[in-house]
Task: structure prediction
Amino acid sequence: MERAEGFEDQRLCVVPRPLVAAALARPATRRLIVTDAGWFPRASGHGRHRPGGAEETIVIVCVAGSGWFSTGGVRTRVGSSTAIVIPGGAPHSYGASETDPWTIWWCHVTGSDVPDLLEAAEIDPARLTVSLRAVDRVTSMLDEIIASLERDQSPARLLATAGMAWRMLTQLAVDRRLPEQGEPLERAMRYLEERIEGTIRVPELAALVGVSPSHLSALFREATGGGVLAHHTALKMARARRLLDTTTLPIGEIGREVGMSDQFYFSRQFRKMHGVSPSAYRLQRKG
Result:
């Protein structure tokens, strides 16, 4: 059942479709635009059923209570600190729990860059939810979007909200890719960060966080694009860059600071990542 009336204290903004069409014809906003946005507190009776999907991609962030969504005949419960991302054109239904109705922030977006942003967030028919690491960060962006559209829907305002939506969608991608606190990958990453100057053996690290070496390597490849040792080397190089930029330490000493006592080996690793030697990097103008 779709509730016709609104919800007490709700906020709701709908951009007139002629303005949407005009924005999609302008270079600055054709790549991304917010078409609708809102906040529904304790949205008892809220629900939508769209057998043909929506024209826009829908983002719903549940901050309290619970609800559900259904795609492909599968119904999934949604709780607090969870985002639902439904691509445009995907048939779907969703609604609030009857006993504990959700409070949601939401928006609709469209534009040529939306598919790429959804791919970055690893949104596909089997994975339409994202567990949010910091739900306040995402809802503050949605609050900004709504506040901006409440003022007016001029081309400048639509451009501003496009930038806010970009930040929100990229944050969803970050929350998808970075591990939750306490998960094996997060504990392994923190262990490496705390031991940048050390030498790490993958089997020992895997045993420390309670997974197999192959599984740990797969987790690192999915999150970082490389393996455990490659990530550790990247951390070493990041510290080396910082020392090159902020100190006058000799190159050999910087190598030792990051656990590479052989200066020639350190220089080779640095050049492999940066394309220049540590000495040449230090001489580059920055900023």
Remarks:
- The longest strand covers residues 33-40.
